[in-house]
Amino acid sequence: MADHRESPRDPATPRVSAGRAALAAIAPLVCTLAACGVGVFAVRGDAGDLGQMFREAGVGGMGVAGVALVALPVLSILLFFAARGVRVPVAIFLGVALVPWLAGAAASAAGLAQVMQALAHAEASTRAMLFAAGLSESLSGRLFGGFFSLTLLIGLAFGLAFAALVLEAPARRLALAGVGAFVTSPLLVVAAL
């Protein structure tokens, strides 16, 4: 009995070498490292303050960074397969790239809940200071989540563009370039504001 399942790889697309496909796979890593390096020096002026930034962000910020460190290789592997001609739905790419943002939103909500519980038992003279410190810490998780998701989305756009360039099929190249442009255009608008 013949197996009638469809292959995930488009038969019209020739097999691309692993070295060429690796260019697409490293795009999220390069974009994230570049953004982290620029961000550290632009915000603080010194790379030694990076540890202090994470300590001030608390557990939520470190958790978001951990989630981003897991999402980064997953996105790279997916881009590698896309560059080799395997069909990967765009929703999976976007879902993986937005996981740090969701983790940041969850960390922010959990941090705000802890702040409200602490304020219920605090003296009136220290409530304003506790609220300001707690709000700062809880919203740092959301900031880190947005930052890491933005860098992953930009890396995804570049990775899809590289994947389109290494594939030989013109229709696939146009589709992947269109997805890359679609993902990048809102980010450029937000960056311009």
Description:
The structure is a single chain. Helix 2 (50-83) runs antiparallel to helix 3 (90-120). The protein is elongated, with a radius of gyration of 21 Å. The protein has 193 residues and is an all-alpha fold. The chain contains 5 helices and no strands. The protein has helices at residues 18-43, 50-83, 90-120, 127-166, 170-192.
Write the layout of secondary structure elements.
Blueprint: H1 18-43, H2 50-83, H3 90-120, H4 127-166, H5 170-192
Helix pairs in contact: 1-2, 1-4, 2-3, 2-4, 3-4, 4-5
Strand residue percentage: under 5%
Ranges where pLDDT stays below 50 over 5 or more residues in a row are none
Average pLDDT taken over every residue: 76
User: Assembly type of the shown chains?
Assistant: single chain
Share of helical residues: over 70%
Spatial shape? elongated
Tell me the total number of β-strands. Answer: 0
Distance between the termini: 60 Å
Query: Which class of secondary structure composition applies to the elements?
Result: mainly alpha
| Order of helical and strand elements | HHHHH
What Rg is obtained from the alpha carbons, in whole angstroms? 21 Å
Tell me the major beta sheet: none
Keywords:
193 residues, mainly alpha
Short account of what is shown:
This protein has helices at 18-43, 50-83, 90-120, 127-166, 170-192. The protein has 193 residues and is an all-alpha fold.
